[in-house]
Amino acid sequence: MRLGRVIRCFVTVVVLSVGFLMGSALAQYGTTDGEWSYYGGDAGSTKYAPLDQINGDNFNDLEVAWTWQTENFGPRPENYYRVTPIMVNGVLYATAGSRRAVVAIDPTTGETLWMYRYDEGRRGEAAPRLNSGRGVAYWEDPDNPADRRILLITPGYQLVALDADTGQPIPGFGANGWVDLKQGLDREVDPIDGAIGSSSPPIVSRGVIVVGAALIPGTAPESRDNVPGHIRGYDVRTGERKWIFHTIPHPGEFGNDTWEDGSWEYTGNAGVWPPFSVDHDLGYVYLPTELGTGDYYGGHRLGDNLFSNSLVCLDVETGERVWHFQMIHHGIWDWDNPAPPILLDVTVDGRPRKIVVQVTKQAWAYVFDRETGEPIWPIEERPVAQTDVPGERTSPTQPFPTKPLAYDLQGFTLDDLIDFTPELRQEAFEIVSQYRLGPIFTPPSLIDAEDGTKGTIQVPNQTGGTNWTGATVDPETGVLFVPSYNLSKSAGVD
Question: What is the pTM of this model?
């Protein structure tokens, strides 16, 4: 059985502002001094900068001061540039080109201060994420401020530590500045062709580098077998592996029984392909995980499949699980958690709360106490439609947040068809009549079903809702701003 077939259609884009934070936020997060030291601006991924030099009165007067071209660094032109540069101590750091060269740039003039280029050969060419990635991470030794490092995950899945001032590899880190991430995964991975990598930068807290993983997209995988996306922590000074968290639990670990019939042994994915967020004070790192192998069919991995499609909180120093919440049981919709969660201190009903907000492809924002994992507002398990695909078994219920409400269309009915003219509506009716329709969590169906349909219209589709762009928050007003893509597709299995 092929595990999935996708047809895309009905494309529109909306951008929404969702105000749901109760009271004013405390001033713990947000960037300072005009710098941007993390992918998401700060460790809590708020993407907020309290700057006022540019405002509504002078915005139209802005002019380009300089440009720095990125597309030609590598064996081929790059047209997939999604890097967010960081700025630390007055220097921009970014990646460029499909080989992911690292550059340091003067933000005042655009001058290149240094560049670190490398060639991973066939290993790099075989990478499942052969692109410039999303950037780098920064660390400064609190006991020795002269020891400042830029940290990179290469396309070939190697961790590199560079001197932030010179761009040279750190000799005492791993093997001359490099650590092979295909080793130490607790499952054998081919050192050249093993299909694991990462597009996102790592994150550092309390002397530990936390590393995620991105695998081959699972729209129609060739096999049920794949590499698991386990999460690991490395010593930022030496490159030594300190811990591993099995996102697909091993025997004896919590959640292993949610992978029935020994499917934990061969199922892959369940990694974290977006960036992480971290609370330095608590010492917690937050993992937005993806689903297991097979985006639209999971008959080979029956069960709820922890810790896929979850938000997981780990102790950053030990890798021990503090709490978790699974947004989707036994995911078969390609609704990976797509972006780093946002950490914020707010007041809810007169009570100060440390919260974490995870925006999703489902167009829901899930909000939790980030110390305990308790939902800030109730999240209800509700019955959902069930599959009739042979060999598949869907969860009888799924979690539904009660607040905030969904910020985009969920599910699809005939009432959602366009009606610009009667003729267009009739044409749309004839098209969708070939597919199954239903509310959110209506499962993919056979493309040659007995009822004559050829798949299920899925809304939102695998793009979202919200995707890798994530959201941003204004902690002064308590408003979360969420970009959302109002997209649909047919999800069919043959």
Answer: 0.94
